[in-house]
Design brief:
4 helices; about 80 residues; single chain; mainly alpha
Length: about 80
């Protein structure tokens, strides 16, 4: 999960805390819904794509790509979002 901390650290300071909290909470919820005891990469990736506002998608995708996070293997980005 170090790579995700790196992604969060590159978000503009004003949004960093909000993004970190939103992604953490959603990732934990995703893990619980799967019946898992711990958060996995797919939970965090899904959290980024479901809780980041569409205007920030291109920035998010660039940050994920720069940190070698393969979001495509989890089916993202979905067709309803444009990047």
């Amino acid at each position: 999960m170090e790579r995700f901390k790196t992604v969060i650290s590159k978000i503009p300071l004003f949004h960093m805390g909000i993004a970190e909290n939103a992604v953490r909470v959603k990732a934990e919820e995703n893990a619980r819904l799967r019946g898992a005891q711990r958060v996995e990469e797919k939970d965090v990736v899904s959290a980024f794509f479901t809780d980041v506002p569409i205007p920030f998608y291109s920035i998010m995708i660039r940050l994920l790509d720069q940190n070698d996070i393969d979001y495509k293997k989890y089916g993202f980005p979905e067709n309803r979002h444009t990047c």
